[in-house]
Structure of Methyltransferase type 11 domain-containing protein:
Amino acid sequence: MARYDQIDYWDDRYANDTQPFEWYQSYSGIRHFFTPKYLQQSKNENTSSITCPHIDRALIVGCGNSQLGQGMLGDGFKSITNVDFSSVLIKQMTTKYSEQWHREFFKRQREEKRLEKEEGSSPKPSLTDLNKHTRLSKQSPAKEVNKTTIGNKMTFHWHDVAKKLEFPPESFDLIVCKGTLDAILCNQNASNKVKMMLSECHRVLDDRHGVMVIVSYGAPDERMDCFDNVLWSEIKSYTVPKPFVPGQNHQVGAEHHVYILFKRAGLGSASPRHVGAELAVL
Ligand SMILES: C[S@@+](CC[C@H](N)C(=O)[O-])C[C@H]1O[C@@H](n2cnc3c(N)ncnc32)[C@H](O)[C@@H]1O
């Protein structure tokens, strides 16, 4: 059985291979999911209190050395908190994504925008541009990058996401889980761990517009049972084509699955704590 649920497996893997690795999809393959079109609940739900999400504060659970957070930072997310239970990885990522890295990253971005403007080519729309409902700006993209990137930051922390998270309630607008749910499902005690992870993710999501995006190889008939309908007011599922990877067998029509879970508003903190308490005695 795969050992993707084991800390020592990941510590060894990251110690022996420090190259960035992308599970399933790179950011460009799933970027469109971080737009109002996907992050808003259906109109037929009781969404009177739900506004278009302000997706500034993101949490990436089981971040690995993927470049997802970097892509999101480039798209204007203000704060990206990455967690993983491999201390080897967290050390590597904290060293890599230093203050200096952030300064150079945003400098490069500004330079690219300036060149695009000078050449007259239309700049790649940032997520800021795509999120017109919430962040409509009359400024040029170049100016907007200047304005929005001051203080924007990506941080890395050790956490076992199948345990209580050390974040206060409602700390995040968006949680992204790419491959981590699948890794936890390799555990013999997976169902309790998955419940704990999802209940903690629910707790730390903003009550009004909190949303969780899960990228998985598992199809809805294998994954929907993992999601507790008490916690989520709506769950949508989508597919994305598996990217072609040179040297790997590519099955035409093969897909990955993307689940978008909308936090059920108005539960307060009672429900998640209740779920956590139930788990504690299992
Ligand atoms: C399949 S990899 C995905 C990595 C990255 N999200 C990506 O898309 O490339 C799973 C990651 O989750 C981490 N992980 C697995 N179980 C975890 C847990 N219980 N708590 C925190 N991290 C976990 C592993 O260390 C690994 O980095």
Notes: Residues 4-5, 10, 21-23, 62-64, 66, 84-86, 159-162, 178-180, 183-184 surround S-adenosylmethionine (CB under 6 Å). Strands lie at 57-61, 79-84, 153-158, 174-178, 211-216, 232-241, 255-263.
